[in-house]
Amino acid sequence: MNKERKITDEEVKQLYAFTRKHFVEYYDLQTELVDHLANAIEEKWQQQPDLSFDDVLKQEFKKFGVFGFMDVVERRQLALTKKYRKLLWGYFKEYFKLPKILLTIILTVLVAKSIQHIHAVIAPVLLFSILIFSLFRFFVLNYRYRKKVRQTGYRWMLEEIIFRCGSVPVFIFIPYQVIEYVYDKEYSAVGQWILAAGVVLFAIYQYIILYVIINRAEVHLEQTYPEYKLLKQ
Amino acid sequence: MKNSQLYKGSLTTIIMKLLEENGRMYGYEITQKVKSITKGELNITEGALYPALHKLEGEGLLDVEVEKVGNRLRKYYKLTEDGQKETVNRLAELEEFIKNMQTLVNPKINPDLQF
Q: Which domain of life is it from (chain A) (predicted)?
């Protein structure tokens, strides 16, 4: 009997389909699991070359435990979400270092002065406008991402996290209470500055998750997934 | 993994130690290596290995490379510079732990306690 029985191209396709069937929707994770299963099956064939592909696959899949690949997928999601937050924090910090800190200061002064000299309602109006705009941008990004997945047929976990803004709603920061609270009130000078800084921080945060990281997505994806570049060639 | 509760905390250290010795490795290779070194006594389960690898990668301790091998893509892991430093720390910590456990479990080995 053939001692060197190897996984065929067709069987590789079947393994990809198998991972998809077991709720692994992301290409990066599928690829790793396909190689793992293929290695395990080939190893088994060295001892028992007559076993059918399906039978060995079943045996090997059992080793992943009762939840199959689910645990691997969930923990991968956690690891990449953490990575996303790290990226986000890295960009956010830039706005408190030269030269970008100048922009942060100028914007804060502008908002504070507007509150002082025009009207306190400026703050909630700004917050609300940023919010509406962010919502709009969020839906555009989601549409763009879905379209790309349809075209390429590949889903990458980090890309999805980036385009869904960390899988946490963009609006976790929703300043509703703030809007309610700040509306129609008189502020102390310190209160005005705090409010202005809050508006500017909110704007910077939204700008980073909705523009900065999105524009740098390719770079981060290529760093995280060497196969991303391989597939593009 | 055999008696997982006791080994669980050391899984990442085991992975890092193997990568330190072997340069770069892929997931399946790691499970087989552990099995052969421990003569089948220790068996890293797939469900534990990949989350541990992804966690280390997320922490910036591991780097990945992908290569086409035969008709499929293979993902290799290797230690980053930070990972190499961290391996030294974690191994020292693990050795200290083993020493303390030995003293606790088998106090007769400690000559100070012998008459």
A: Bacteria
Alpha-carbon gap, residue A213 to A90, rounded angstroms: 11
Residue B76 to residue B18: CA distance in whole angstroms = 13
Distance CA A141, CA A139 (A): 5
Q: What is the pLDDT of residues A182-220, one digit of tens each?
A: 555 666 777 778 888 888 998 999 999 999 999 999 898
Nearest to A65 by CA among B14, B75, B7, B50: B50
Closest partner CB to A31 (pick from B28, B54, B73) = B73
Quick one: tokens of A216? 């740098």
pLDDT at B96 over 80: yes
- ipTM for the complex shown: 0.81
Q: Which residues of B touch A72 (CB under 8 A)?
A: 46-47, 50-51
Tell me if the bond preceding A169 is cis, omega within 30° of 0.
Answer: no
Q: How many CB atoms sit inside 10 A of residue A24's CB?
A: 25
A67 CB within 8 Å of a chain B CB:
yes
User: Which of chain A's residues have a Cβ under 8 Å away from the Cβ of B73?
Assistant: 31, 35, 227, 230
The CA distance from B72 to the nearest CA of chain A, in Å, is 7
For chain B, the residue count is: 115
Using alpha carbons, list the distances in angstroms from residue A91 to A73, A164, A208, A216, A221. Answer: 27, 17, 7, 11, 16
Per-domain residue ranges for chain B? 4-105
What is the model's pLDDT at position A115?
82
Q: What CATH architecture is B4-105?
A: Orthogonal Bundle (1.10)
> Alpha carbon of A142 to those of A17, A148, A159, B32: distances in Å?
25, 10, 11, 42
Listed residue (B89, B91, B95, B9) closest to B52, CA to CA:
B9
pTM, whole model, 2 decimals? Answer: 0.81
What phi, psi does A65 have (nearest 5°)? 90, 180
